[in-house]
Design goal:
Two copies of one chain form a homodimer.
Chain A lengths: L18 H9 L4 H7 L7 H7 L5 H13 L3 E4 L3 E4 L1 H23 L1
Chain A binds a DNA duplex (30 and 30 nucleotides) through helix 4.
DNA sequence: CAGGGTGCTACGGAATTCGTAGCAACTCGC
DNA sequence: GCGAGTTGCTACGAATTCCGTAGCACCCTG
């Protein structure tokens, strides 16, 4: 199974290690963006996260969570479950304009 | 092969048809974000786009381009090649903060 | 002990993606 | 007309990724 993309190292589709390429590799994997999105309201347990993501397989969820933890975007808090780190919240904030845009996209497209 | 995600219809991983879910499905497919990114500087031909994306297979490139055209984000201009539509440029603009963020992410993560 | 929660793994099959080869159409120079 | 070059795009078998179900080990409460 493909390893977690890391800045400075080659990723799927690019050998430069440029941060944007690493990010595109990470976010281009199925469920990754969705998981970050579902954590927007606060921590969720592994199983709650599964349900929020329409019951994706635990295999993939665990793989994605490993990648997101390796990337410093998500952390496992024993008391509350999985949550966005400050870095992950920054990513979510940068992503919010896309959410607002998608509403207009739906009306026009 | 999975059909292009459309707002208002069920997509992979969500039956609600909410625009954000449709967008997450679309962007969560491999190479989709990369293709939009590589078109940031202007139109590219099919083959130039392949090279820009580190030689991804023409099968997948064509599939992604169909999806992006169905979504109204990319158009084929016979004279110049594939280019972002105004809608696609809006998406790219909303995505730019993530690029800037990825630079800091690389330093911290 | 029973019953419920937690994170997580195994495994076989389905879906997606890849890599290579090549087609049909068009344009250019000759 | 005839190549040589471009264009967008397809076929097809193999590799990779993802899915669905079942279930393990652990902890806590009753």
């Amino acid at each position: 199974m493909a390893r977690s993309p890391r800045t400075g190292s080659a990723v799927r589709g690019s050998r430069t290690g440029r941060p944007i390429m690493v990010l595109l590799d990470l976010l281009g994997r199925r469920w990754t963006l969705r998981i970050v999105w579902e954590l927007r309201g606060g921590p969720l347990t592994f199983r709650a996260l599964r349900e929020a993501c329409d019951g994706l397989s635990p295999t993939v969820l665990n793989t994605r969570l490993k990648e997101l933890r390796d990337s410093g975007l998500v952390a496992l808090n024993e008391a509350e479950g999985y949550a966005l780190t400050p870095l992950g919240q920054e990513l979510l904030e940068r992503f919010l304009p896309l959410v607002e845009w998608s509403e207009r996209w739906a009306r026009r497209g």
